[in-house]
Amino acid sequence: MTLSVLDIFKVGIGPSSSHTMGPMNAARRFVLDLVEQGLLERTAQVGVQLYGSLALTGLGHCTDRAVLLGLEGHSPEGLDPAIVEPTLTRIRSSSRLLLAGRREIAFDEPLDVLWHRDQTLPGHSNGMRFTALDGSRAVLCREEYYSTGGGFVARADELDAKAETAAVRVPYPFGSALELLEAARAHGLELHELVLANEGAWRDGAATRHALMHIWSVMQACIERGFHSQGLLPGVLKVRRRAPKLFRQLTEAGSASPMQAMDWVNAFALAVNEENASGGRIVTAPTNGAAGIVPAVLTYYRRFEPGASDDGVLRFLLVGGAIGMLYKKNASISGAEMGCQGEVGVACSMAAAGLVAALNGTNEQVENAAEIGMEHNLGLTCDPIAGLVQIPCIERNAMGAVKAINAARLAMRGDGTHKVTLDQVIATMRQTGEDMSAIYKETSQGGLAVNVPEC
Ligand code: SF4
Of 339, 301, 306, 307, which Cα lies nearest the Cα of 319? Predict the structure, then answer.
């Protein structure tokens, strides 16, 4: 499995990469397969079965909505958030679905979308089964998919082969942080140069720069929308958006506080995650639940660090993306597998490393910052109240962003030598996630989810 930085940073919609974007991608892939196999015109009914964590927290994470949109052929990247509500209203009020955007079939949602809360498919706790039937209810096609975090989707055979993305040969392959550092040392490269060279296996340097600046612009637009959207977030918790008020306070009153930058970092992170919670346009970094940390730290860099530049932004995203790849390859970025250490912890580690790269730290300082960013998130559980990506998720991104900046500062004060390596902390995160009880892995069966009343 060879990953690109653009597999880690993807434009999508909220509120969840594993429970919204993944199921939408899977549903779309299923109907496109029907088209390719010439089965679409014979399909009279489609059934969807959701298992494990998807079934337990899918309602709060909008999995049902994502599946309907995916069956109509929409993708998270291409979907205009403005058409979501009208499309869902049309499907639900007419009980008819426009399969792949071209074949209208009857669709009885309570019967055609089943939630198996007490069952898990063998490959992963985020399992889905799609079935297409003809007019006489004979099965035309049946497929199982897994949503493995960050919007990635795999069929069962692809899970085993770890082949979610096409095999691509890069000039500097690396499977661990040690291999990454050694390759950079051997070739006299800074980490961002090495990653940019690897990206050349997919597209030329100018195209990579353009794509990453687009990612940065989507992040900035998300923060702006978050600052100017008022009201309550969707769902039973009736959580009020905090970013607009904080933005107003910081803008109007100004502040001579030495902690002013931290207030702004909190505001940036809250803005992104409130947008995510409301189903808005975001960048997975590496997931939706943890989507606020990288943009908050990057915006901090651009606004508060002297000498900050677009080149620094590119260094940040290239290196932060490479750190995300290490977690994806050697552990997981799925809250359903690792708990929140796999989402907020990974984003914190990526942002810490990215900030050091933007500030022209050494390769060893980058590795040190990434390690610190994860070490102090180990064991972080996933226990969203009411299955909504709101509490603790939104505030946790603000905490993760501040922690990432501190990790970068600690690393920049040292020379890169340290006791615990990034590879060791990634292995520790994976083992901790495997040992963690399922009630703390995106099931809303433990932690805050059972100790705090939903309304
Ligand atoms: S608690 Fe963490 S892992 Fe769980 S949904 Fe929220 S952000 Fe994602």
Answer: 301
Q: Which one-letter amino acid corresponds to residue 269?
A: A
**pLDDT interval class at 162 (50, 70, 90):** low
Q: What is the pLDDT of residues 343-374, one digit of tens each?
A: 999 999 999 999 999 999 999 999 999 999 99
**76 preceded by a cis bond (ω within 30 of 0):** no
Ligand 1 atom nearest residue 383's Cα? 1
pLDDT of residue 454: 73
Say which residues have a Cβ less than 8 Å from residue 13's Cβ, sequence separation at least 6: 20, 21, 76, 79, 81, 84, 279, 280, 281, 282
Which of 344, 383, 395, 441 for mutating ligand 1's site (highest number of atoms within 8 Å of CB)? 344
Measured between alpha carbons, how far is 280 from 293 in angstroms, rounded to an integer?
16
Q: How far is the CA of 334 from the centre of ligand 1 (A)?
A: 9
Instruction: Give tens-digit pLDDT for 13-40.
Output: 999 999 999 999 999 999 999 999 999 9
pLDDT value at 254 more than 80: no
Ligand 1 neighbourhood includes 394 CB (under 6 angstroms): no
DSSP notation for 42-98? G--EEEEEEEHHHHHHTTTTTHHHHHHHHHTT--TTT--GGGHHHHHHHHHHHTEEE
The CA distance from 362 to 413, in Å, is 11
Q: Answer yes or no: are the C-beta atoms of 425 and 373 closer than 8 Å.
A: no
| Domains observed in the chain | 17-161 (3.30.1330.90), 177-451 (no CATH)
The predicted structure's pLDDT at residue 1: 72
Nearest CA, atom 6, ligand 1: 393
Given this model, what pLDDT does residue 165 score?
52
Which tokens in the block code for residue 443? 């099931």
User: Would the CB of 60 count as within 6 Å of ligand 1?
Assistant: no
Beta pairing class for 127-133 and 113-116: unpaired
At residue 236, the 3 state secondary structure works out as coil
Task: Render pLDDT for 336-349 as a digit per residue (tens, 0 to 9).
Answer: 999 999 999 999 99
